[in-house]
Amino acid sequence: MKTLSPLQIERLKYQPKLPQCLQNGINSLEMVEGSATQSVRDQEQIQDLFKNTYGKPVVTFKNASSSSSSEVKNVGVILSGGQAPGGHNVIAGLYDALKQANSSNKLYGFLGGPSGIIDGKYVEFTDEFIDQYRNTGGFDIIGSGRTKLETEEQFKKSLEVCKKLGISAVVIIGGDDSNTNAALLAEWFVKNNTGIQVIGCPKTIDGDLKNEQIEISFGFDTATKTYGELIGNIQRDANSAKKYWHFIKIMGRSASHVALEAALQTQPNITLISEEVEEKKMSLDSIIGYMTDIIVRRAEIGKNFGIAVVPEGLIEFIPEMKSMISNLNDIMAVLEKDSSFVNASSVKEKFSIVESRLEASNAKVYNSLPALIKEQLLADRDPHGNVQVSKIETEKLLIEMISARLSELKANGSYNGKFSAQSHFFGYEGRCAFPSNFDADYCYSLGFNAFGLINFGLTGYLSSVRNLTSPASEWIAGGIPLTMMMNMEKRHGEMKPVIQKALVKLDGPVFKQLEQHREEWAMNDRYLFPGAIQYFGPSCVCDVTTCTLQLERSKELVNA
Fold this sequence. Notes:
single chain; alpha/beta; Rossmann fold; 4-stranded parallel beta sheet; 24 helices; globular
């Protein structure tokens, strides 16, 4: 018998809220179809690759006047990619809807991510098993993985496993890459007349899987509130001790939604947004200059402390760094097989070999970096063969370069302050936190809704629950075709269909909120202290969602 904390015990009792149409029962739904859809870009190429699943309509659910029976369905579920708070509730919602539809239905969880369906490793869920995981963080219920479902052999093996278990539908819970794989699997299943459906659920704490129909990916709410608490704690400490500059790198490689949301929650002195850096073509030198200027001006009024929030993927958005990293990715694919590089007698020798292979302008950028960063750029590649940006200690790079710049200013009499810095990286701290009430409700609804899509025979769809700034009873449930979100991008040197990432919109209401207050927050310490996530108490504290979603929805409602 596992020992549970008091909070665990109470959270297990929590009954997530559902949209009104889902409250009346999974067999009491009516499906309403919208007009045909098309992909966000590259329509001809995407349609050619998804001949059987392209162009389907957006669907929404409403209450039916009568209840219908549901035939027996066995469903498999996969957790794919990095953890995000609320994944267990997606499975719980799926399980409850499935059992409500027909008590003979079975739900199988594939172990260790997509590899589970290929290798036939699974567990059958029971009430007793699933009840241990309701409203909890993590993906430990069945584990996750990053295996890609994209080859003919993988699809055939998946089909064999599904046939063995009598599975007629598979639900893939994941981010943009995972749901791209869901779209490929759905297309293959239809093309080969297997009768097996595929439904996706939108997960990622990075917040970059969203559009008009997917207002937010699950886990973003909880993760950003967790980071907001940590940043608030550090701000309180900084404002108490008044002697350190804290540089906080925060998760979000391809988009800066997490950094932007955390900044709106806490109001730090400096917030860098990767998309802005790229749009304005800011060099590393200009970024150092911008941050140094604020540090100097604060020192002039006796404030030798502050908070800087930096997105994880910043380094890739700096134009000269982006060019250098792209060049580096290409040459490393060759150097990793070159014995002279692999067997180099020292790290410095490796640096020299790399610089000799890089284009002249990129070699100059690489040479200008601190040794620590140069070494991190040579670390193991990610599954796409690219630099693992999360392993680059961007916060330490900024500290070192700002410190050098301040020393120059001190030498010529332009700066008389003190600069002591602390570095932090907030990533894993937010991925498996107890889900907020919002994420607990949203995830449960996504899972419950996913079975609704299965019940109506749909495939190649993403579970969609909208109108999320309203009370849960007013949420709108339905689904969107996965192909609707796709475009073509270069991966491993080839053009591949992928779900398009949603980046921070610099003309949108969320970034504009930061931009409007940036100078005020830089100099006047308007720190906010969000505190820990609250699960019990008034709805205005416990159920409120992110600043990002509130600002985006507010603009949508004004324009409606």
